[in-house]
Amino acid sequence: MISIKTIKKISSFFIIILSIFFLYSCSNKTKSIEYQDACYFKKVNGKEILICDEERMNKVKVQIHPYSKEFRTCDKFQYKTEIDGEIRIETGIRCPTKFGYEIIK
User: Fold this and answer.
1) 82 Cβ partners below 8 Å, 6+ apart?
2) Burial class (CB in 10 A: 0-12, 13-18, 19+), 71
3) Residue 28, pLDDT above cutoff 60
4) Residue 78: inside a domain, yes or no?
5) In this structure, which long-range contacts are made by residues 62-68, counting pairs with CB atoms below 8 Å and at least 24 apart in sequence?
6) What are the tens digits of pLDDT across the range 43-97?
7) 99 lies in a domain?
8) How many domains does the chain have?
9) What is the largest CA-CA distance in the chain?
10) CA-CA distance, 103 to 90, in Å (whole number)?
C-alpha cells in the first residue's frame, strides 16, 4: 500500500503543476502585428526595381493565437475623435470575421 506521506507528496506535486498551468493559461496574451511594406525591391533582368503596391499599404498581418504561427490579413483604417472640441485622426486595425469586423487596435 502507498503510505500517507507519499500520497501527500504526490498531491502537492499535482497542485503545483495545476497552479503553474493555471497561471500560464491566464497570462496576458498579446497579439503580434506585422505591418507589410508597401514598397519592395525586385530583380528584373538583373536590375533592381522599386515596386510600390498601394493595396499593401493598408494591409496588416495579425497573429491569430499568441502561441501559434498563424496570421490573418487585416486592414488599417483611420477614424476621427473629438475631445474638448479638438479633432484628432486615429489609426486602427480591423480584421474581417463571419459576422463583420473585429477591431484589434
Assistant:
1) 88
2) middle
3) no
4) yes
5) 62/31, 62/32, 62/33, 62/34, 62/93, 62/95, 62/104, 63/31, 63/32, 63/33, 65/29, 66/29, 66/30, 66/31, 66/32
6) 888 888 887 776 666 777 777 776 777 777 788 888 888 888 888 888 888 888 8
7) yes
8) 1
9) 79
10) 13
pLDDT digits (tens, 9 = 90+) for 33-44: 666 666 778 888
Is residue 40 in some structural domain?
Answer: yes
| pLDDT, mean of residues 20-41 | 65
Reduced to 3 states (helix: H, G, I; strand: E, B; else coil), residue 22 is: helix
Q: Is residue 76 part of a domain?
A: yes
Range of the domain at 98: 29-103
